[in-house]
Design brief:
heterodimer, A: mainly alpha, ABC transporter involved in vitamin B12 uptake, BtuC, 14 helices, 4 strands, B: mainly alpha, 2% strand, globular
Chain lengths: 327, 290
Amino acid sequence: MPEPASYRVATTVVLVALCAVPLVVHDEYYLHLFIVSGVFVVAVLGLDLIVGYVGQLSLAHAAFFAMGAYTSALLFVRLKWSMWLGLPAAALVAGVVALALGSVILRTRGHRFIIITVVFAELMRLVATNWVDMTRGFMGLPGLTIPALDIPGVGSIDIASKSRFYYVVLIAAIAAFVLCRVIVRSSIGRKFVLIRENEPLAESLGISAFRYSMIAFAVGAALAGAAGSLYAHYVGFVSPDLFNFSYVTIMLIMVILGGKGTLAGPALGAVIFTFLPELLREAAHWRMIVFATILIVATLYMPKGIVFPLVTHLLARQGRPRNARAP
Amino acid sequence: MSPSITILAQHLLNGVLIGCAYALIAMGLTMIFGVMNIANFAHGEFYMLGGFVAFYLVSLIGLNYFAALPLAVVVVVALALVLQHAIFRRLREAPMMTTTLVTIGLSIFLENFALLLWGPQPQSIPTPFATKPLSFLGVYTTPLYVFCMGVTVALIIVGHVLIRRTRMGKAMRATFQNKEAAALVGIRIDRIYAYAFAFGAALAAAAGAVLGGFIPVEPATGGIVTLKAFIVVILGGMGSFVGAIVGGLVLGLAEALGAGYMPSGWKDAIGFFAVILVLLFRPEGLFKRA
């Protein structure tokens, strides 16, 4: 896609606005929502690699998120590893498990793949619930903390407050965005799209759909694992509830409505669909019904999503951004 | 009989009923998959609705148990036809991602709608059967169990005969194998879609209504049932009716044995491992497409 100046301006404005959030927003609750949406951005970008770029529907993504949360939590509780070690470990575990699972189930892409990812997610929930000696079952693992940031020469910086942890999450979200952008703009990313658009053609060119699906699946899972680790240490508690099917549903809504196969769309979708449910808090009973309806209608009638097409339309028409689209 | 054999027999007996229910649900799921090329994630919701409607007909309206069961099936089939007309008709020829996401949305919708209407508490359908256990060679069972067993087995046979012996079944199988050719010989594909969907919903709702006297139904039941039915369908071979029946029985028996001899909570993991083994060694499933 050509990049008019308006996109670069928009990117700068968004970045500045994002950095300024804790300076403007002092309400703890809204700051909390910003942090949670940042965590979701990391996870959802990973999901977008699989769903949006390679075109395989994975329903195990929330399970990788939860697996990352549990990995980080267990390392903290059992071995006293801080988040700085726990986060890479969580990403690694989720990525390796995805490789192992993918090597079996990505050979049969299509319906079987979708079904087995959801069966796998359910199995992980069973493990978290029933392996009581390790995970404490339903009781979960409490008492996780956010570590101090030790910089040699500067000293130890406390980042546990919301306004400071926000920046940790922001950096993670930007890092995930840049990583995904590098991937999708490389030859790997072009192969992803070719496999999505025309798998027989890709295979005839010697591009292994299996191998490239594996890359997307593993990198996506690793991002989910990293997001899970951030979430666990931020909330301070993990439990088998993290494996609820509603998590994968909301992540899919973020990707689909954001605009699958783009990066900015799902990232913005993650922010919008973290805040929107809070506005619907009054009607908690209706929330999932509203979400389900949105998912059905958007899938049927808006295959390109809402957020990304809308934003690009606005930017293209204006030539320049109207004002800071602070997410 | 020695005690250990009696216990084994008891577990197997428990497994057969669940297995028959799995078979019943998976037959419909496989039919919808074969005819419409849709992995229907809302399928278990028909089971749940069958159970709930039967419960309300019996306990709130006070309808006779034996009249309530078929009526519940009729109600659910009517709903299924509305859904078919409103949503599933539009999914013909749609990409897999679209069909799957829509059925997932529908599943969440129906589950939460049931939650709004009926609340989260599990409900057992009151039955007119005596609770006194029957004993046979040291193996215990109840009249309700015998009744459920009889109905599910009868329904499997009826379903099988419908598919194998009737003109309608023939038309469905023809559509299953080759849509264009079926359309060419004058089969109305859109009508077959509706029949296949109603057929699947009816079997699942019947399973829900019958087992609802035995296993309490709650709104969240649907998701678990869908998952189990998918495991059965993959085990048996996607699109195979014999596979659905055999796979259902195998999973039911394996889970009953697992529940008997393994730490509780792990029996649901059996299906997953079975699926992985099948994918590794026999990816097309135990039975090829019928």
